[in-house]
Amino acid sequence: MTNLAEVTDSAEWNTRCELAALYRLAAYFRMTDMIDTHISARLPGHEDQFLINRYGVLFHEMRASDLVKVDHAGRELKTGNGAPAGQRVNAAGFTIHSAVHHARPDLHFVIHTHTSAGIAVAAQEQGLLPISQHAMKFYGKLGYHDYEGIALDLAERERLVANLGNNKAMILRNHGLLAAGTTAAEAFHEIYFLERACQAQVAALSGGQALRLPPEAVRLRTAQQFAGDNASGIMDLAWQAALRLIENDQPDYRQ
User: Fold this and answer.
1) d(CA 95, CA 109)
2) Beta-carbon neighbour count of residue 152 at 10 Å?
3) Residue 117 CB-density burial (10 A; 0-12 exposed, 13-18 middle, 19+ buried)
4) Alpha-carbon gap, residue 218 to 111, rounded angstroms
5) Nearest in space to 177 (alpha carbons), one of 222, 117, 219
6) Would you give per-residue pLDDT tens digits along the chain (255 residues)?
7) Is 122:128 a contact under the CB 8 Å cutoff?
8) Residues 222, 227, 229, 232: is their CA dihedral positive or negative?
């Protein structure tokens, strides 16, 4: 049987490995919801194609070869050896990810999660509060999308991307979180900080005490600091460190 890696160009295979690593890291940091939620990656050199998980594969067992290639119309594309992919793609996952990939060519990796903390904050009327350093990374840079039911209606894509705007992260009301990036490192950094911010907010609200919010000037300054000139370098350092968490015990994600 032909190995997928042998019939896939190096750029695509590298993207597959990075995407599989994102799945493994989402599992490592407990940002999974059984076989639901999704992470996707745009195919290099193919603006109308992206990779997404084969429905039914758990995040902690995801491999590069498990990823399904689809176009923006939702059609599964053939694998490199000419055989049909034959791998089911979750319809709701396709709706959300195809919307972002089609509208935002600057975002190559998209992560959607249903964590307890993310859903909790998504259900709170005030949304993400600027009560932690993690949260202030997103101050003025976070979209909100109202819940419309399970994302099976393709017409929702237009409203979803309108609510995302020029941001790289969004809270899906009563649903969960979405984060994206130009690189796998950036997408990981976005979802990690957004998840941690939500965890901190849930913990702070559970204390039953009045919350202390930093002044507006401090919130804006902190958000600008996160977007400083060395941001990409820090994200890359964090990504390489994160990869070491899965390289030793679970290197099969590259298969």
Assistant:
1) 15
2) 11
3) buried
4) 29
5) 117
6) 346 655 468 999 999 999 999 999 999 999 999 999 999 999 998 888 999 998 899 999 999 999 999 987 767 776 544 444 445 788 888 899 999 999 999 999 999 999 999 999 999 999 999 999 999 999 999 999 999 999 988 899 999 999 999 999 999 999 999 999 999 999 999 999 999 999 999 999 999 999 999 999 999 999 999 998 788 899 999 999 999 999 876 668 878
7) no
8) positive
Q: Is 126 left (phi over 0), alpha (psi -120 to 50) or beta?
A: alpha
Which secondary structure element, helix H or strand E, spans residue 118, and what is its range? helix 116-122
First and final C-alpha spacing in the chain: 14
Global confidence as pTM: 0.91
What 3-state class would DSSP assign to 76?
strand
In whole angstroms, give the CA distance from residue 178 to residue 182.
14
Q: Other CB atoms closer than 10 Å to residue 57's CB: what's the count?
A: 16
Q: How many residues does the chain have?
A: 255
**Which token pair is 55?**
């429905």
For tokens 């989402």, the residue is 26
**3-class DSSP state for residue 42?**
strand
